[in-house]
Write a structure and sequence with these properties.
about 100 residues; about 5% strand
């Protein structure tokens, strides 16, 4: 994996797992990771999500100050980790959340 200006660029051996902080895919899903802004940006890029759209989604999902909370980056990274094998599913979820913006339940 090549890291250029804080953005992880995959090579043929690496992918979303590496951007999510895994050394390789054999690391268990329960591995404890420290999340940060660069990891979240990398995962957003690797999953093909528009960064501005993800930011709007994160604000709606976790609140305006999600990135200032102790576990804010971790929540975002966990969300992407759950969808690492189904990026289209996450993109659909984000689109649905944003379409429902402003509606009350």
């Amino acid at each position: 994996m090549e890291n250029v200006d804080g953005i992880c660029l995959p090579d043929e051996r690496a992918g979303v797992d590496a951007c999510l902080g895994y050394e390789d895919s054999s690391v268990s899903d329960s591995a404890v990771l420290t999340a940060n802004a660069a990891q979240v940006r990398n995962a957003v890029a690797m999953l093909g999500i528009d960064p501005a759209k993800f930011e709007r989604y994160a604000v709606r999902r976790w609140g305006r100050k999600w990135h200032l909370q102790t576990d804010g980056w971790r929540q975002a990274l966990d969300e992407m980790e759950r969808y690492r094998n189904d990026p289209e599913g996450l993109i659909d979820k984000i689109d649905t959340y944003l379409r429902l913006e402003g509606r009350t339940f």
